[in-house]
Amino acid sequence: MDNSKLVETFSEFKEFKNIDREAMMRIIEDVFRSTLNKKFGVENTEEFIHIIVNVDKGDFEIYHNRLVVDDDELVDPAREIKLSEAILIEPDFEVGDEVSEVLRVEDFGRRDILALRQNLQTKISEYEKENIFLKYKEKVGEIITAEVAHAWKREIVVVDEDGVELSLPRAEQIPNDIYKKGDTIRAIVKSVESVNGSPVVVLSRTSEIFLQRLLEAEVPEIYDGLITIKKIVREPGQRAKIAVESYDDRIDPVGACVGMKGSRIHGIVRELRNENIDVVNWTTNPQLFITRALSPAKISSIVLSPDNTMANVYMENDQVSLAIGKGGYNIKLAGKLTGYEIDVYRNSEANSSEEDVDLQEFSDEIDQWVIDALVHMGCDTAKNVLSYTPEVVASRADLEMETVRDVFRILKAEFESDAE
Question: CA-to-CA distance for 187 and 167, rounded, in angstroms?
Answer without folding.
Answer: 10
